[in-house]
Amino acid sequence: MLRDKTCSPGKAPLTTTVVAKITRQRVRRGAFSGAFNGIVDLQAAIKRFLKEHNADPKPFVWTKPAAEIFDKLARLPAPSD
């Protein structure tokens, strides 16, 4: 379930995914004029998305076996400090 929390580096991909989904929804509805009108507009859109998503949450379904995911993670370079 998605929650409204402060973004940290580990949450950046989720944040990017949420913003991208909100943007696609706006484009499909024809309510998109190129960008959000500022931080307040983006925050309101994210909060609205979270409220709607959490009203009828769907479980995440993995599309690959766990072993394949862990193998791919093991091949990634070590993070730099």
Give the key terms.
81 residues, extended, 3 helices, mainly alpha, single chain
Computed over alpha carbons, the radius of gyration is: 16 Å
Poorly predicted ranges: 1-9
What is the beta-strand fraction? under 5%
Major sheet size, sense and barrel closure? none
Distance between the termini: 30 Å
Task: Summarize the SSE layout with pairings.
Elements: H1 12-29, H2 39-55, H3 66-75
Tell me what the structure shows.
By secondary structure, the chain is mostly helical. The chain has one domain. The chain is built from 3 helices and no strands. The chain has helices at residues 12-29, 39-55, 66-75. It is extended, with a radius of gyration of 16 Å. The model is unreliable at 1-9 (pLDDT under 50).
Brief summary:
This protein has 81 residues and is mostly helical. The protein has helices at 12-29, 39-55, 66-75. The radius of gyration is 16 Å and the shape is extended.
